Sequence to fold (1016 residues):
Amino acid sequence: MRLSGGTVSRTTTLYAGAAGLLLIGAFPFFWMLSTSLKPAGEIFATPTLVPRHATLANFVQLFRETNFAVYFRNSVLVSFTTVALTLVVSALGAYSLTRFRFRGRETVAGLILMTYMFAPIMIIIPFYILVRQLGLVNTHLALVLSYTTFCLPFCLWLLRAFFLSVPLELEEAALVDGAGRPRAVWHVVLPLVLPGLIAAGIFTFILAWNDFLFALVLITSDELKTLPVGVNDLFNATIVDWGMIMAAGVMITVPTIAFFAGVQRYLIQGWGAGGVKG
Amino acid sequence: MAKTTTRRQFLIGTAGAAGAALLGRAPTARGQQVRELQVWHTEVEPQTVKTIQDTSIAEFERKFPGFKVRQQALGWGDLNTKLLAALAAGSPPDLTHLNPFMTASLWKKGLLRPMDELIRALGEKDIHEATLKLQFFDGKYYGVTHAMGATYIAERRDLRAQKGLKAPETYEDFLKLTAALTDDGKRHGLQMPGEKLYIGFVHPAEWLASNGGSWVDAKTWRPQLNGRAMVSTLEYLQKLNKYMPAGWSGQRYLDTLAALSTGKVAMVYLSGARTIGYIERYAPEGMRDPEHFQPMFKPRGPSGQKGISALDGENWAVFTQSKYPNEAFEFLRIFYSREHYLKYCHTVPIHLTPIFKSMLNDPEYLGHPRIQKWRTWHDFMVTGLSQGRFLPIGFSRPDDNLLPFLAELDGSGIVADLIVEVMVGEKNPKAEADRAQKRAEELLTQLGFKRWS
Amino acid sequence: MGWLLLAPSVLLIAGLVLYPILYNVWLSLFDKHAFLPAQAFVGLRHYQYFATDEEFWSSVRYGLVYAGATMVLQLGLGIMAALLLNEAFRGRNLLRGIVLFPYMIPTIVAVILWKWLLNDSYGLVNHLLMASGLVRTPVAWLGKDYIMWSLILTSVWQFSPFVVVTYLARLQTIPPELYEAAKVDGAGAWRRFVHVTLPQTRNVLFVIVLLRGIWMFTKFDTVWLMAGEGGVSRYVRTLPVYAYARTFTYLQAGMGAALAVIMFALLLGATALYFRLFRDEEVVA
Fold:
């Protein structure tokens, strides 16, 4: 048995460590929020933890004087389309990998997993040329397709693990009851793999929402830009306006955090089965 | 049960998102049926964009029903890449700004339309000589400058006056002045912008021009990066670096303007009339005036005649692939009509100086309150033009408009590495210059522009 | 039927990943302008050129420093944080969520955030350092001497959560009995970690190091956004940045493709070696 002194010091260490983690994880965000609420004068003065005269002027400026709202809309559009497409394609694929036997199945599965390791930077050049030949440069479709492709390996493997955990008997029972295969899958299998679908959806969303490289290379017109590239341009053009830039940071971060907080439990669950790209 | 509900909500959410996606696309699809005149330019200030919309575009759309003008403002650092990409994709804009250092290479490839008729209609004699012939190839005009903005040093005139020092003429004078204005721990004498584009292209071109040098040998196109003009400049820059903030190479042009306005530095190396806007916004009250802030010409090197600065003036150009070339030229006539053009120039006063000589003394042009208040900056600009102090961005000699590889030289960052290694990295100027020379020779060889042996 | 359902996935991956990879190899044998149609066959000349190109070797060195330093720090920090978050204390679940945030946000946000914190004139970090008397003049965090460290700091902050979550997921599956038994044997916390936790988490560490190693060595956006177009990029020009620059700023797509192939080959070699050295049992992904 340890002495009680040991327990106290253990508790102290634990909470000190927790406080440290909290500081590292959350303080930069707090500082971003705080800066975004400061008027220009305070930003260049001695820093204070909270704004002395909080103002929403930076946010107003962001939406009035820049194309931020357009970038935001584009990001939402591209991200959600990507999520929908990825889920459909990968659910079909994962179902096929777990329910059908066919030649080359394992080889294909292995190959797909291998592409998980490829970084976009390694293929961006031919990818760009290919997209140009297809006439898709400067379209959202090009972004959706590239994100879907890069999310697929992970989502397939994640969903494969979930489909494997659904006992075949359940599905067969439904089939015996007279339901067709689509109905059986819809009513029996999908509910059981829902956590996997949600986890895959979140990963996809994050990848699509955050991507910089594809958007940088594939999109040229301002009205089609997504947030990361749009905000980077904004940053280059208005670097002096730290308040407005931080306001943009806050606006990009909020949806991710809200989305994430809503479904956190699924995320951790799904994560156990693999990782996410980045 | 609970699970089913969640699934349904989830599926509805996804379907809704997909639906929204489709709806979001619809307007673009419909928009393609209207005839659209694509206009790209580099004046990103919101008030400029709005003014173009309210004046020239509004009138154009009235005159040409069925046409819609879509303007796109690009940072000029982006312009080259974006244009090349659009050309490669076969969908260039109908009318665009070009950086003068790119015009020649596009003209050589037969991508530009001549515009002599337009130039004559605008008044060939009235267009300022500093810009008129920049896009004049084989007896024809291929571009017209949208407005002239000069770059120069901006200084705290009050601080220099306190020290009783004259405006510097040579590198040596400038070093002394910078040293005198440095107040250890409180203020640095000078800050240069850290962007590769400026430190590795715009300024080096100026230094070469101010020190009797050039990018390449006029005949053989062999790079001249380790020539005397460059090496003696590097030695001077290395000394100058002591009076600059330690982290300048990681900061940007706009950071330097903020530093000048808030009193952290006494001079910034890259400034234009746009600086006035930052001074009026960020300088302490009581200092937002020309008594404290003034433009200053750049110094010349030991082998140079006079200090040269970059003339920031993109030119309008029309591609041969343009879908509506006639309408593009019509748009330009409207754009340059006195009434609209004055308003355009007034959106960023002095930075957008009219290209028409007759307008430079026009009371209506000079009547703008900001030009009245900052009149010395306007006069400075006019003096610089008449003394031949300005060369287009990236030009080391007037004839550089014929070099077809300046965009690649800029993009490679070879010169930026040279300057940064010598200034910040404190490397030996000659040795670094030799290295840069080797890299540049390799680059031009790879690009197929090697004419020397 | 099986193939039919799998077809969209296979088509996308084959068309948009595998084909580009092969095309990349093909492209690397040509002199090709990034935008204009002209191209000329040059065989292996680009590879020959890079073999003696100082820029290339310097980019490999910077890439190794960056990947190496961020890996060590991510692993150290991530494992410690995961161990902490595996203990029971109030607010643990909330903290688990918060710790993930840096990984969830776009890189551009992480970068502008740290650029602001590290800004030499108005940044909080310099303000605190000066107020506490640790330094007399502002430190140029984004200048030549510290830019690599600032980049590493930003990256570690951004990517450690991946280690935390992946490691934590495995930690939670270690049977408590193992620890109880070790306690009975009189093992202290450190020995329990070495003798129980480490062997149990060996496999997941193998995967973490592999994936993160690959991703850090090919990291583009953080490095580019931190310094890409600045003069200071000289001091953090890693291989991915150099490959990008060759294509999109030098406008030499063929050479850019060659660099991508080299990057690919280096990674393949490193991965093979890594498997040889460390993989002695079946690892399940």
